[in-house]
Design brief:
This protein is α+β, with helices and mostly antiparallel strands. The protein contains 14 helices and 10 strands.
């Protein structure tokens, strides 16, 4: 009971806090534009850039969202929300409504379902339930998993977060033609090559660009014991055939879960198929939580630029611009996370993003005061150094030490370049070089303060990066946690087997 109330309270605080943060950021952005228009001679470039960015970004963001939710809400409401640029706020307020319902509900089952709805509200959902044809009691029923492969010894593992030491996660065997999962005694799929060309053609492109994919297949027996787990970077189209043999007629009496994860820039898709002897349930959710906050990163940079312009011309709105970039950066800090990521990991990454990303934004905005060409060179040189260092680490470990970094499909899916020492270290070196160059070319109190801040932040960031990587929980790398997440999403969609 206490655990449930804690979950409900956390979801409620998160929902209310993000909705209030959205309103605060909107008010600060409008205020920054008004102040800029009042001092147009000094702030002209900032006003043009900030106005253009906000209008274009919110037109595209709200247009994309209204297209998705056009059939889910009334047409008049959809048009009003689009015109006022408040579709993201509408979705955030839906979370608050479910969170309040969870707080007021006395029934534990209903309260938990409402809390899960609040957690996954900022998603577009499609779901189906298909009843399986029934068979007589005389039909033989058996497990898909060979008896020798049943290595789990703990009962009801699907409902608790346990270690994976009692059994082995195998590679999903996917039929090349139909892309359906196959069950066999060896259950070994086609393994990826480890050639040098494959390192660049597949591994590197999957790590830093393009769409990432990950699939898990779970099998639970009639006693709800977890008896099989497999994973692959391929997204299977479906589960194994329910009929195991026709002579005599034998059907599978296991419970199967197929969980397909895919993510791109600004979105994450979770497709779940759950099947037992009676029915098959499918739920597909596209999470927009990070997409509706995508404007915050560049808004922070523009507000920092406005702050520096205001300081140069001795403007009186310094406090407003400080509040603007701080709250916008806070919104970015708190929304760079997956729907199932624990808040402990999110908060642990905030100092890292503050030392690296925000500090580098200040550096780029300071360089932008002398021309946009220098900013482009700074940005491209820092990114090039980071990616070259990442490539160098991959090649060196692969050729010299015969170690394939991020060779596991789970590691590749959850890879974050911002948590890699080689990538961040190279970008830090380039940024420190640019800070030194700025001070040497135009020595002043501001350039000296910027140089000291950049050097201290990059050093502190590298030290903290080495520290924080050891303490991140990253529970989504645990397949059992993936199964628990799938069950939560099914419950939130009010679909279960």
């Amino acid at each position: 009971m206490s655990i449930l109330r804690t979950l409900v309270a956390m979801v409620a605080m998160e929902s209310v806090g993000l909705a209030l943060l959205w309103v605060t950021v909107a008010v600060l952005h409008i205020s920054a534009l008004i102040v800029g228009f009042l001092d147009l001679d000094a702030m002209l470039r900032f006003v043009i850039a900030f106005t253009s960015y906000l209008v274009i970004t919110h037109l595209l963001l709200n247009g994309w969202l209204v297209r998705i939710y056009w059939d889910k809400i009334s047409r008049s409401k959809a048009v009003l929300l689009y015109v006022t640029f408040t579709i993201p706020l509408y979705l955030l307020l839906l979370r608050v409504r479910h969170a309040v319902a969870a707080l007021r509900e006395r029934d534990q089952v209903v309260a938990r379902r409402e809390a899960l709805k609040a957690r996954y509200t900022v998603s577009s959902e499609n779901s189906t339930v298909v009843e399986s044809p029934s068979f007589s009691a005389t039909v033989q029923r058996t497990s898909c998993v060979p008896l020798s492969a049943k290595t789990s010894t703990n009962s009801s593992q699907g409902d608790s977060e346990v270690s994976l030491r009692s059994w082995v996660v195998t590679e999903t065997n996917v039929d090349a033609g139909s892309k359906l999962i196959k069950m066999s005694s060896d259950d070994v799929g086609v393994r990826e090559p480890k050639s040098f060309s494959h390192l660049f053609m597949s591994d590197l492109s999957e790590l830093v660009a393009g769409r990432k994919t990950l699939s898990f297949h779970f099998v639970l027996n009639v006693n709800n014991d977890l008896i099989h787990v497999s994973k692959t970077s391929i997204l299977p189209n479906g589960l194994p055939d329910r009929i195991r043999s026709t002579s005599p007629l034998t059907i599978c009496n296991d419970t199967h879960y197929l969980i397909n994860l895919s993510q791109g820039i600004g979105y994450e898709v979770v497709a779940i198929a759950a099947r037992n002897e009676k029915s098959c349930v499918t739920v597909t959710q596209t999470n927009f939580a990070s997409f509706i906050w995508c404007f915050t990163m560049h808004s922070t940079a523009l507000l920092v630029y406005g702050l520096l312009v205001n300081l140069r011309y001795n403007g009186r709105a310094t406090g407003l611009y400080h509040a603007g970039w701080m709250f916008t950066a806070a919104a970015w800090f708190l929304t760079c996370r997956g729907a199932d990521e624990p808040w402990t990991d999110t908060f642990a990454k905030i100092p890292l993003r503050l030392c690296f990303t925000i500090c580098r934004i200040f550096l780029m905005c300071a360089v932008a005061m002398d021309g946009l060409v220098n900013v482009a060179i700074l940005y491209l040189s820092a990114k090039a150094a980071g990616y070259l260092a990442l490539v160098g680490e991959l090649v060196y470990k692969n050729l010299r030490r015969n170690v394939r970094l991020w060779g596991d499909v789970v590691d590749r899916y959850f890879f974050d370049k911002n948590l890699e020492m080689s990538y961040q270290g190279s970008e830090s070196v380039v940024c420190c070089g640019w800070a030194i160059w700025c001070h040497v070319c135009r020595p002043s109190e501001h350039s000296l303060a910027l140089l000291v801040a950049v050097l201290l932040c990059q050093a502190a960031g590298m030290i903290y990066l080495n520290f924080v990587r050891r303490f991140l929980k990253e529970p989504m790398k645990n397949p059992v946690r993936i199964l628990m997440m799938a069950k939560d999403r099914l419950n939130a969609a009010e679909k279960s087997i």
